[in-house]
Amino acid sequence: MLANLKLRRVYDGLLYFAESTRNLQKLQGHRHIELELNLVVQGTITYVVSGRRFTFSQRTLLWLFPQQEHQMVDRSDNAQFYVAVFKPSVIKRYCRTPAYEGLKRSASGQDGVLSTVLRPESFELIRKTMDSLMQGSLDSDILNREAGFGPASDFHFEHSDAYALNAGLHYLLLLCWRSQLAGKATRDAISLHPVVRRALKLLSEGHTEQNLEELARDCGASKSYLSRMFHRQIGIPLNRYRNSLRLSRFFEQYQQPDRKTMTQAVYAAGFGSYAQFYKVFSQAYGRGPRDCLRAG
Predict the structure, then answer these.
(1) Based on the number of CB atoms within 10 Å of its own CB, is 232 exposed (0-12), middle (13-18) or buried (19 or more)?
(2) What pLDDT digit, counting tens, does each position of 239-259 carry?
(3) Based on the domain organization, do 197 and 178 belong to the same domain?
């Protein structure tokens, strides 16, 4: 799915700080024309890219290049990470020397996820730079709720000083690339079994209403084999992953311009009942949906 990050012309990119404790579920696979980088501050985050699973821990800097399909499939309960994106025009304008030629690559020339575990001093410098650029941005609760750019809603990223943000983003991009080149690229990945890849594809296409038996049949496997292999390779139970997708779709449905009622959004997301939705939501966010959404 090609995602429109809806960046206004005045911005050369965006930056926000994501936290598992308040970042609402956005787990569909997607791609975009912008370059994205993540910096893991705490805990772990897990992506599936090109049929392989990558898990990144504290101090890891990772790059998702333009048009590169990626899907966050899990994050630890204590995960904290920065997400920064840069418009193609920024790459063209500021990456003119051979040292930055690697930033011009596209998904077609990228195998997996480029990443490095930063030295402590480099990590602290980049983290503090990112933190300083957040000054003047929207409230972190809002940015987390909208995944930075607000998919399927009229939300747009905003900052009180676009020019200062842009200057900082230019510096941040070059700083992070120099740190990537100075570090040792990480290549740890798990190649996914075709059955797991098929399950991820079906679930991302909206088959969250299927029960396990139906999903396993469409994947050409038994229920026990699919469940066991999915948990082993993705790192979380299939049912937990499916419920995370349902939560993601609930928020998309609930934030549509022709706003559905909460109950309508619950069923449109693939939940079998409001009681099931309430239980899953409360387990994910520590409070009921009406309290959480009212706070937003």
Answers:
(1) exposed
(2) 888 888 888 788 777 877 676
(3) no
Q: Is residue 105 part of a domain?
A: yes
What mean pLDDT is reported for the chain?
Answer: 88
Residue 109 vs residue 124, higher pLDDT: 124
pTM, whole model, 2 decimals?
0.83
Asked if residue 207 lies in contact with residue 215, where contact means CB atoms within 8 angstroms, the answer is yes
In the chain, the amino acid numbered 7 is: L
- The parent domain of residue 34 ranges over 13-182
For 124, 239, 243, 278, the CA distances from 199, given in Å and listed in that order, are 39, 12, 14, 25
